[in-house]
Write a structure and sequence with these properties.
alpha/beta; Purple Acid Phosphatase, chain A, domain 2; 5'-nucleotidase,  domain 2; 2 domains; 6-stranded mixed sheet; 16 helices; 30 strands; 26% strand; globular; disordered N terminus
Length: 596
Amino acid sequence: MTSPSGPSRRQVLVAAAAAATAPLIAAAPAQAAGAARSRTWDLTLLGTSDTHGNVYNWDYYRDAEYDDSKHNDIGVAKLATLINQIRAERRGKATLVLDAGDTIQGTPLATYYAKQEPITATGEKHPMARAMNVIDYDAVTLGNHEFNYGLPLLDLWIRQLGFPALAANAINAKTGKPAFLPYVIKKVSLGFAAPTLRVGILGLTNPGVAIWDKGNVEGRLRFDDMVATAAKWVPIMRARGADIVLISAHGGDSGTSSYGPELPNENPVTLIAQQVPGIDAILFGHAHNEVVERFVTNERTGAQVLLSEPSKWGQRLTRMDFTLAREHGRWTITKKAASMLNTNTVVEDPKVLAAVRAQHQKTVAYVNQIVAQATEEMSTVESRYKDTPILDFINHVQAEVVTTALAGTQYADLPVLSQASPFSRTAVFPAGDVKIRDVAGLYVFDNTLEAVVLSGAEVRAYLEYSAKYFRTLAPGAPVDPEQISDPSVPDYNYDAISGLDYDIDISKPVGQRITRLVLPGTDTPVADNAQFVVAVNNYRRSGGGNFPGIVKTQVYNEQQEIRQLLIDWAQAKGTINPADFFQPNWRLVREGVPVF
C-alpha cells in the first residue's frame, strides 16, 4: 500500500532493500587468522504461522482454557516460552525467528481491536504487535487474513511492529512496485572466529487475497504468482550478497487452489521448491497442516529444499537446523533438518501475558455479555448433514435484512434465498442465556452480507457444486456421520440454502445429486428461468470456494458484518425461538429415502 501524497515507510524500506539491504543484526567478529578450514558452524531457524490472533491459551467461545481432543495448547505466549528456551540453550549462536502469516484475525481478541475498539480509531497498539514484539521476531510474512480489516489497519499494525513485514508479490496497482518490503538480508553472527553470514529472507503472501478481500484491495493492490515472484527475487538476493536464502510463504504445499484458475496458485510451495533454484528452505503456512520435515528436489540444480509448516494457532513451533561450512570464501550448507515442538509441553511466557493482559480481559468481558434468551438448546453438531435450527437462524437473519433493504426497489418482488455454512462443528446456543461468545462461536469469520440475483438454473448449479462435499454412498451402505464428507472439501465450503426445498442424493455422482428442487411447501419444480435474490457472505460472493454463478454484481452490499447482524437481531428480539425461523427445507437421501 502506498500513499498518493508521498512515499510510505514501507516504500522507503523497499527502496533500501533494492539498493543494499541494511544489516539488522550486528556483524560477527572477523575470522581469526589461520582458523581451520574444516570447522563448521550452525544456524537455527524457529518458525511460527497461522497464529490467528491467539495470544493466551484461551477459548473465548467457551470462556475457558483451550483444550481439544488431542490436548493441544495454543497461543503466542506458549510459543514465546519455547523460543526463549531455545535461545537460552543456543546462547552465543545464531537463532532466527520468522512467522509465515495470518496473524491479526481469528479470535474475538483480534476482532475486538479491529471492530469494537479499532486501533485505527484509538491509536492503541494491537495485541498481536504487543505479543510479537516481546518475542522480537526477525520478520513476519503477511498472510491473506492480514487484509481482512482493510489497508489502514494493516498499515498501522505493520508500523507498530519492531521488525519487518514482508510480502514481495503484493504489488501497488498504480505504480507496479512492491507495496510492502519484499525481503531482508540479515547479517548474522555465527559465533567467535566465524565470518559474517548473510541470510536472505523473502516473504510471499497469498494471491487469493484478490478474491477474499476484493473490497479492500481492488484497484489498489494486485497479487502476483508466488513462483514467479520467487524466481524474480531469489537471484537478486543472491546477487546482493545473500549467502543462504530462506522463504517465508503464506501458501500450502498441495499445488491446488480453492478458487478457479483465474488467479495464481493458492498452495504452490512445492512448485517453488521444485522450480526456483537458489532456495535453501521454506517455512510455510496457510493450510493449517503439521508438516515436520519435507525435502523437495529442485529440478534444475538437484538441491534438496527443506520445507516445514507448524500447524496453526500456536500449537506447534518449527525448528530448522543448518550446519554450515566456509569453503573458498563461500558459505555452504552441509546439513539441514527440521523438527517440531509442541506448545503443550510448556507454560505461557509471563512477559507476553502481561503485555496483552488488559486487552485480553476487556475482550473476555465483552464476549460474555448476554444478548438474548434461547427457548431451547441449539447446536451445530449435525448441521453438516441435517437441516438444523441454528443454521436456519443465520439464514433467517440474512434473508430478513436483505428483504427489508430491497423493499421498494426493482428486486422487491423476488423471493429471497440465503446461504450459510457450518463453520463450527461444536457451536451451541444454550437454553437460557445466549452470550456474544455463543454467537461468535457460531459465526467465526468476519464476513459481511451481500446479495445477488440468480436464476433457477444457477441456483441448481450452485447446489450441485455444494453437494460435492459429500462422499458417494450406495443405498444400503452404512453411514457414519463423522465420515460422510469428502476430506478435501472444508466445512466452510459447504453451503445450505434456505427458501427452496431440495433433496441431495448422495448415492449419485457429483453433479447429479439435486434430485428434487421445488418451491417451498409445494411440488412445483423451480424453473430454470425463475429469478431469486440470494443473500450471501462476501467471501463466497467474491469467489471464495469457486462456487458457480455467484461472482456477479451485488444488489445489496451495505458492508454489514454478519456476526453483528446476528447479535443485533437477537438483542432486538430478546428471545431466540426456533419456532420463529426454523423451516426444514433440505435433506440427504439415497434413491429418495432419507439418510437420517
